[in-house]
């Protein structure tokens, strides 16, 4: 299995190299050279496998011979041992053909744990094998940084610098990052929004003068993240009767990584069905699907901050597919975005995307109403992101077709928004409650690449 760049001008590499890489040398994102396949019988068999067993069957098709199966399975077992739900990703029947896929049972109570608990272990394996070190530079709107730090803290082979937008994460999200005192971890509060953090991160990855630090990504631009997330699409679809029946998925979406994992599972022949992009007021993806123009606007702060994003990096991967895997076309669109502030999809690309994807814009008031309605009906408490997914699922439910809404975070991570919706605070897990009295450590920097670069150089040299 080899991986190629979405911009078409980088040599193919194997999974172990992708795993410890950031952007491709041409600035693109890595994609499988060909899509691995699951047979119908293999998909059906996964319905009764444990989650680690299913993960091995799916992921070995992405890793190829880059990682011995015994080492891969050891990492998988260790990654999911810490999840509170034995199923790892339980599927809850909400009635009327709607299902909720709970992805928040990991150590940081967010769906990012499913990928990052595994990625941290695989990175450590690869670095020990090669005798190299890596410097993880990440940008987070809240949950990626938390999950990355939890998966990488204390590792001798890895340094970690995570940027978050100052004042634009929930207090719990911030403290999950900033109360970690391990020597290999640093947190930066950037005076800007998530898109600013992400732009700085990409600029650092493109800076040749930093290459000797071994910069690597844990954001969903890292293909290993996407690969790990395909597993829960495959397992949930199998439990609902795929591939013999269609299954739809509604996904709360910011950076487009999670829903692209669903597309990857579809391309593996795990299921056939619609993928619904569920956005908040930062609705660039809904607007793009409706108009064909991708044009970022100012970021609006909402009660679902992990989705407060206007530049969805992983959308480039779908553009690559829609362009017939023509890297030159994608490179041209990305150049238009940089120089003009927007790009326009061709009619062929729009038709390709419309054949698989729909989109729904859900406001914070609509999300709050959904939290209140579900709580009144069942006593279940949703976080705002999961509520957005459930609203989108209800709007796009097709007769006779099961639909799965992804529940991406524990409600306690967004306690203020939840309490505002239902007048009572959500139950606080002991691990989150313990954060309240812990000291925090982070540094505040302007949204400037040069400032962050200087900080990283000081960190690596031991001067921070």
Question: Your description of this structure?
Answer:
With 464 residues, the chain is α/β, with parallel strands linked by helices. It has helices spanning 15-19, 40-46, 51-63, 69-80, 112-130, 143-152, 171-178, 194-205, 223-239, 257-267, 284-291, 315-322, 327-340, 347-354, 364-378, 384-396, 415-422, 430-433, 449-460; strands at 2-5, 13-14, 30-32, 91-95, 98-102, 134-139, 158-165, 185-191, 215-216, 248-252, 275-279, 293-294, 343-344, 357-361, 403-407, 443-446. The longest helix has 19 residues, at 112-130. The protein is globular, with a radius of gyration of 20 Å.
Which features would summarize this protein structure in a list?
single chain; 464 residues; alpha/beta; Rossmann fold; 6-stranded mixed beta sheet; 5-stranded parallel beta sheet; 16 strands; 15% strand; globular
Topology record:
Blueprint: E1 2-5, E2 13-14, H1 15-19, E3 30-32, H2 40-46, H3 51-63, H4 69-80, E4 91-95, E5 98-102, H5 112-130, E6 134-139, H6 143-152, E7 158-165, H7 171-178, E8 185-191, H8 194-205, E9 215-216, H9 223-239, E10 248-252, H10 257-267, E11 275-279, H11 284-291, E12 293-294, H12 315-322, H13 327-340, E13 343-344, H14 347-354, E14 357-361, H15 364-378, H16 384-396, E15 403-407, H17 415-422, H18 430-433, E16 443-446, H19 449-460
Parallel strand pairs: 5-15, 6-7, 6-9, 7-8, 8-16, 10-11, 10-15, 11-14
Antiparallel strand pairs: 1-2, 1-3, 4-5, 12-13
Helix pairs in contact: 2-9, 3-4, 3-9, 4-5, 5-6, 5-9, 6-7, 9-10, 12-14, 15-16, 15-17
